């Protein structure tokens, strides 16, 4: 039987931090899904060997500092305007892989017009959409994607459809547009879910070079600080409540 | 065929979110009693049941876990 020190050798490594992630300690709260999604994007870029040909567009929100963590070229967009910047980057550099990384406050609220028209134009970009049903950065206010009855700092008695409207299922909306090629909804709460999300992101990057339209990967995530739960409880709450409104799976794939 | 594994945790980067603990099929990770320089209790190996499946490292938001595995 090998002892632990015998096993801890470089040749036995099966999983380690991707080299593309910088050594900066992430500013995200403990257990935040952003870190996991950053990691799998870094893994996909590393595995595809496209570090010098990838341009990321970071949003406004908690992930505004995404450029500090993944060692590729980045641009920082005004609130909600990442798809517009990505359009420019991709049209001027058709040989580059361009992706945006946006939260629900950025993409589904202030940036709704931008994403709808980018999808409608069929831009060859990848959009990674983090949906945690809350504005995490500014203190947990209600977002368009907040579930009915969900308590946030601006809906302390729970979201009421009469007063606050219904949750916006923007992913299904975008699937109806002709310019989109691949639309999927995934999560990162278990190892299996993380691998599925990683495959979806890889597929999105591959599709963005096939000139068939926009790839949109929604990741249903947690905001444990905003939800006032521990990271593990937040994952449990997400599987019990979020997946009911936002079911996981591929919604559209034009090459299937 | 059986596997034996072990994990190495970067204590200073770990924020003690415990997502790895919830995802470990062998229940071999626990939170430490001590805290790191940020004041977080960090994850540590609790016993030698680890099979090197890398579930913990896959879900780790801060990428602090390195997984080693050998066939026995």
Could you describe the 3D structure shown?
The complex is a heterodimer of chains A (256) and B (72). Chain A is an alpha/beta fold and 256 residues long. Chain A is built from ten helices and ten strands. In chain A, strand 6 and strand 7 form a beta hairpin. Chain A is globular. Chain B has 72 residues and is mainly beta. Chain B is built from two helices and four strands. In chain B, the strands form two sheets. Chain B has a two-stranded antiparallel ribbon. In chain B, strands 2-3 form a two-stranded antiparallel sheet. Chains A and B meet through helix 1, strand 1, helix 2, helix 8 and helix 10 of A and strand 1, helix 1, helix 2 and strand 4 of B. Strand 1 of chain A pairs antiparallel with strand 4 of chain B, so a sheet runs across the interface.
Features:
heterodimer; A: 256 residues; alpha/beta; two-stranded antiparallel sheet; 10 helices; 10 strands; 19% strand; B: 72 residues; mainly beta; two-stranded antiparallel ribbon; 2 helices; 14% helix; 36% strand; elongated
């Amino acid at each position: 039987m090998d002892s632990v020190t015998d096993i801890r050798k470089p040749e036995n490594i099966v999983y380690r931090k991707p080299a593309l992630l910088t050594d900066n300690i992430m500013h995200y709260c403990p257990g935040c899904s952003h870190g996991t999604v950053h990691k799998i994007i870094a893994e996909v870029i590393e595995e595809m060997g496209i570090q010098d040909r990838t341009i990321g567009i970071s949003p406004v929100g908690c992930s505004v500092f995404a450029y500090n963590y993944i060692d590729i070229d980045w641009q920082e967009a005004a609130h909600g305007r990442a798809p517009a910047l990505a359009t420019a980057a991709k049209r001027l550099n058709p040989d580059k892989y361009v992706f945006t990384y946006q939260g629900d406050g950025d993409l589904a609220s202030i940036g709704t017009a931008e994403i709808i028209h980018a999808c409608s134009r069929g831009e060859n970009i990848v959009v990674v959409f983090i949906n945690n049903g809350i504005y995490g950065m500014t203190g947990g206010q209600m977002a368009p994607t907040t579930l009915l009855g969900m308590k946030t700092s601006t809906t302390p008695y729970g979201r009421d459809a009469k007063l606050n409207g219904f949750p916006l299922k923007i992913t299904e909306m975008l699937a109806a547009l002709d310019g989109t090629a691949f639309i999927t909804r995934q999560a990162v709460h278990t190892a299996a879910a993380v691998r599925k999300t990683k495959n979806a992101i890889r597929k999105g990057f591959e599709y963005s070079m096939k000139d068939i339209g926009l790839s949109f990967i929604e990741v249903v995530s947690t905001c444990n600080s905003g939800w006032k739960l521990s990271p593990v409880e937040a994952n449990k709450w997400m599987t019990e409540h979020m997946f009911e409104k936002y079911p996981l799976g591929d919604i559209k794939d034009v090459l299937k | 065929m059986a596997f034996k594994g072990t994990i190495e945790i970067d204590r200073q980067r770990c924020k003690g979110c415990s997502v790895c603990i919830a995802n470990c099929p062998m229940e071999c990770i626990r939170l430490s009693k001590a805290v790191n320089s940020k004041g977080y209790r960090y994850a540590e190996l609790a016993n030698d049941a680890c099979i090197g499946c890398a579930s913990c490292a896959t879900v780790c938001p801060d990428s602090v876990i390195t997984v080693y595995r050998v066939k026995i």
